[in-house]
Amino acid sequence: MIPSVDEIISLPQIKKHYENTTHHNIVECIRNVLEDSRREIIHLSDEQISQYHLSMEKILLKIDEKLIEKRTMSLRSVINATGVVLHTNLGRSPLSEEIKDALWAVASEYSTLEMDVNTGKRGSRYSHIESLICELTGAESALVVNNNAAAVTLMLSALAKDKEVIVSRGELVEIGGSFRIPEVMEQSGAALVEVGATNKTHLRDYEKAITENTGALLKVHTSNYRILGFTQLVSTEELVKLGKKYHLPSLEDVGSGVLVDLASYGLSHEPSVQSTIAAGIDVVTFSGDKLLGGPQAGIIAGKKEYIDQMKRHPLNRAFRIDKLTLAALEATLKIYQEEENVIKRIPILRMLTIDKDELYQKAQVLKEEIIRTVGKDFTVKVEQSFSQVGGGAMPLEQLPTYVVSLQSPKFTVNQLEEKLRRFKRPIFTRIHKENILLDVRTLLEGDNKNIIDALNLISNQ
Ligand SMILES: *Cc1c(COP(=O)(O)O)cnc(C)c1O
């Protein structure tokens, strides 16, 4: 039953593929498709064989699909209808549209990456961004590495290798992807000294643990969990004071790194980087792609004498960020520098602070569009629900939102979820009971059209 490669390659339907790819790729793809058919046939019973029909149409369709798949980027844009704003698996923060040109100019042309245009001599890649970070946070000096995990590792290696670092037992954080404070500490060559209890740590616990081997005092923001009830943690101010008394650097990993006061928009309070610096901390580290809304990066800010030690450390070279990240980060921070409408211009801040009426309107618009185009094939409703901040930030925050819920008489909820997820521009949704939920909070401009296209395709299946 199986045709030969030659037979297929001479068919007129194959001609069109030569516009997009090479002869070699086409032949390889035909071989793969034929091999798949051979394997399918081998596993059929005699009875199944007698009813089996391998049509040329089916083969050609598979060839089309395979060749398209080969051309499609594996890493590509998707629609996030989950309502999880900082979805780590979907790339955390989408960048602001405004920074597009700055990013592409640096990416596609030569740049001032390590060149001082005033002297014509070699410059530092960090010079572009250091003063900007200092201006925004109030720090004396700053450095940027690949991510916050690298920032914490570098900070501990440079400042406390072969020394003891005191941390509260309530702050031995694990972040997804095997970042654990005790293990990072071990890698950096510093020895962890745990103090206090899980729920309560007092300043005297830190003080009692200080010895001549102590290298630093560390605070870690419990970004992705909260200990509630009978609790106490030492404040940044108190830790700073203790550090000063014993001439020890006070360090803090604040995790998300917010630069704006989100509490004034009704979200729970997260310590801002500025307030941590103002409290007198010697070094603070935070992520670029969490609540800051920039690219993946680890930002280190603080006293010059400590930042200088990190700049000179060999790990700094291993953790250094590339020009694309630098361009995206500088452009994002410039939005903060202008202050005007930061909340509107940084996509994740816009999503987190969007008001309920607007969410309701967005949900109504999507619902109407679905009903207008494919209404006969789905049951469509607007319902209230909750979105999440995600990205290991504000774990208790429940953001009231509106979702469009979908049901199909033809497909189960799991089938519908899979079909949407496997659309050419994948759509990620939530399943709740027997419904697919599309949370409009995390939808970006133009996403509605893609959702309609996908539903159109699905209803024609
Ligand atoms: C997220 C987080 C990290 C890890 O940051 P990445 O930028 O993902 O490497 C470290 N510490 C805390 C407290 C965090 O919240």
Architecture overview:
By secondary structure, the chain is α/β, with parallel strands linked by helices. It is 43% helix and 17% strand. It has a seven-stranded mixed beta sheet with strand order 3-11-10-9-8-4-7, sandwiched between helices. A five-stranded mixed beta sheet has the order 2-12-13-16-15. A two-stranded parallel ribbon has the order 1-14. Strand 15 and strand 16 form a beta hairpin. Helix 7 packs parallel to helix 15. The mean pLDDT is 95.
Q: Supply the number of structural domains.
A: 3
- Structural class, judged by helices and strands? alpha/beta
Bound ions, cofactors and other small molecules, one mention each: pyridoxal-5'-phosphate
Overall form: globular
Defining traits:
globular, pyridoxal phosphate, Aspartate Aminotransferase, domain 1, seven-stranded mixed β-sheet, alpha/beta, 17% strand, five-stranded mixed β-sheet, binds pyridoxal-5'-phosphate, transferase, Aspartate Aminotransferase, domain 2, selenium, SelA-like, 20 helices, 461 residues
Task: Itemize the secondary structure elements and their pairings.
Blueprint: H1 5-9, H2 12-15, H3 23-42, H4 46-51, H5 56-71, E1 79-80, E2 84-86, H6 100-108, H7 127-137, E3 141-145, H8 148-160, E4 164-168, E5 174-175, E6 179-180, H9 181-188, E7 191-195, H10 203-209, E8 214-220, H11 236-246, E9 250-255, H12 273-278, E10 283-287, E11 298-302, H13 304-312, H14 314-318, H15 323-338, H16 342-345, H17 347-353, H18 356-374, E12 379-390, E13 399-407, H19 413-421, E14 427-428, E15 430-432, E16 435-439, H20 447-459
Parallel strand pairs: 1-14, 2-12, 4-7, 4-8, 8-9, 9-10
Antiparallel strand pairs: 3-11, 5-6, 10-11, 12-13, 13-16, 15-16
Bound molecules: pyridoxal-5'-phosphate.
Pyridoxal-5'-phosphate binds at residues 147-149, 173, 175, 179, 220-221, 223, 253, 255-256, 287, 298, 392.
